[in-house]
Amino acid sequence: MASKAPTICDKAGSDDTELYEIDRDLSISVITETDTEDVLDLLKRFFFKDEPLNTYVQLGECKELEKYCTKSLGEHSSYKAVNSRGEIVGVILNGTIMKPQPGDEPPAKLATNCLHPKFKKIMALMDYVDEQFDIFDLYSDIDRFLDCKIISVDTRYRGLGIAGMLTDYTLDYASRNGIKLIHVLCSSHFSARVMEKMDFSEVYRLPYADYKIDGEQVFDPEKPHVALRILTKRLDH
């Protein structure tokens, strides 16, 4: 990627104003298991705090979310954006989901064994979506899809198109490996907007106002985050 002129901004997370140089000389590469701690560091500083559902429940530290985020790194289907100082400034975390076969044990619900009470609420929402919508019913000819689990970019580097670049690498990975469908569940208005710009199409929407337990709305994040959406992109090989 061509180097661009540096930008100076206030360093996020500092009590004092500290100038931080955005060098913009970025490279995209595969995430491996050796990157686990650096990936988690980025996620803890940004995704854990600014993802709308995490923010709404004030999630805080969550080892179960850490495990969820990193469980598919061994597939080598996830990508990182790294600046010239070697810092990870953006990630897209992906994992392959296989179509259940006759005789397979039904997968355990995500919330069943979740011990973290706030994360359990989020996992219960994921379970509800799984009950309402089956991607394999919509795309009956596919036997697997690539699930884009998480996209996170350092706030200082947002607006540079990093999420789009990471998605492009994901699409290339899927194409090279014969995967015909990319799936992303977006809890954030902003991540959904990125995917729409990449020609993903909405196939499922659940307004947060419609998800209730015992008649009470469970999640009410700040606008513009008003719905959980699933978007997909079909690949032709």
Salient structural properties:
single chain, 237 residues, alpha+beta, seven-stranded mixed β-sheet, two-stranded antiparallel sheet, 8 helices, globular, disordered N terminus
Protein described:
By secondary structure, the chain is an alpha+beta fold. The protein is 30% helix and 26% strand. The chain contains 8 helices and 11 strands. The protein has helices at 36-45, 47-50, 52-57, 63-70, 117-132, 135-138, 162-176, 189-197; strands at 7-10, 19-22, 27-30, 79-82, 88-98, 144-153, 181-186, 201-207, 212-213, 216-217, 227-234. The strands form 3 sheets. It has a 7-stranded mixed beta sheet with strand order 3-4-5-6-7-11-8. A two-stranded antiparallel ribbon has the order 1-2. Strands 9-10 form a two-stranded antiparallel ribbon. Strand 4 and strand 5 form a beta hairpin. The radius of gyration is 18 Å and the shape is globular. The two termini are 26 Å apart.
**Global structural class:** alpha+beta
Largest sheet: number of strands, sense, barrel closure: 7 strands, mixed
Report helical residue fraction. Answer: 25-40%
Return Rg in Å.
18 Å
Which overall shape is indicated by the principal axes computed on the Cα atoms? globular
Q: Overall pLDDT, averaged?
A: 90
Q: Strands across the major sheet, in which order?
A: 3-4-5-6-7-11-8
Low-confidence stretches: 1-18
In terms of topology, how is this protein built?
Layout: E1 7-10, E2 19-22, E3 27-30, H1 36-45, H2 47-50, H3 52-57, H4 63-70, E4 79-82, E5 88-98, H5 117-132, H6 135-138, E6 144-153, H7 162-176, E7 181-186, H8 189-197, E8 201-207, E9 212-213, E10 216-217, E11 227-234
Parallel strand pairs: 6-7
Antiparallel strand pairs: 1-2, 3-4, 4-5, 5-6, 7-11, 8-11, 9-10
